[in-house]
Amino acid sequence: MKFYRQWIMQGLLVCGLPLAALFLAGCSSTSEPAFSDTPGSPAMTTPSTTNSSPPANADEQEVARFHVGDTVTVTLSGLPDAIEPHTEPIMEDGTITMPEIGHVQAAGKTAGELQNAIHELYVPNLYRHVTVAVSTGDRVYYVRGQVNKPDRLIYVGETTVTKAIASAGDFTDFANRRNVLLIRANGKQITVNCNKVLAGKAPDPPVYPGDQIVVRKSFL
User: Fold this and answer.
1) CATH 3.40.50.300 fits 140-217, yes or no
2) What Å distances lie between residue 68 and 46, 63, 89, 214, CA to CA?
3) Cα 36 to the chain's mean position, in Å?
4) Residue 167, beta-bridge partner list
5) Which of 125, 154, 204, 215 is in Cβ range 3.0-4.6 Å of 160 for a Cys bridge?
6) What is the pTM of this model?
7) Is the CB of residue 140 less than 8 Å from the CB of residue 67?
């Protein structure tokens, strides 16, 4: 009887070893990495956003577009008979008037978009080939009110409200620094508290061509 029990125990031990091995193998399989290094593996096709470009700021996009009042120069070349460059401010209806084709919508377009629009009106309706180049004159912004040198200033690159005011001779002693008005070329108005801006407690809005900065007088 003793021998019989020993024989049963040995059988259980022998049979149990494979089962334990299978159990351990199953546990170890859960530690596989989530991403495979095999090319083309589904784990490698997970979309990544690390290289995606952030959307451009809407105001920055508007800088490149023409506005009513901007002066543009259109040069046509490659024609049998030369045509003088056409220079004209964009009219209130947003158009310029070109020789032979008449009104062309310019406001709201970039230089490249305006070039393409003019080209499509000339070719092939009037000419087989023409090269169109569009350029603009000085782009400006305005600082007026309680600054020491109110003026029309040339836009030479990125600037902000407080930098623009500094370029206009800075605030007068009567300036209301807490209630400065920034008027965008499209009519949008933004009130800026320059005291908070200079203290680092508020953002300093960018200034774009065609904008106006109005520094009001303080009555306190």
Assistant:
1) no
2) 47, 13, 8, 20
3) 36
4) none
5) 204
6) 0.55
7) no
Which residues make Cβ contacts (< 8 Å) with residue 185, sequence separation at least 6? 62, 67, 208, 209, 210, 211
Fold adopted by 60-136? wza like fold (3.30.1950)
| Segments making up each domain of the chain, as ranges | 60-136, 140-217
**Per-residue DSSP letter, 4:** H
Q: What is the DSSP annotation of 152-206?
A: EEE--S-EEHHHHHHHTT-B-TTEEEEEEEEE-TTS-EEEE-HHHHHTTSS---E
In sequence order, the 6+-apart residues with CB closer than 8 A to the CB of 80 are: none
Q: What is the full DSSP assignment across 104-132?
A: EE-TT--HHHHHHHHHHHHTTTT-S--EE
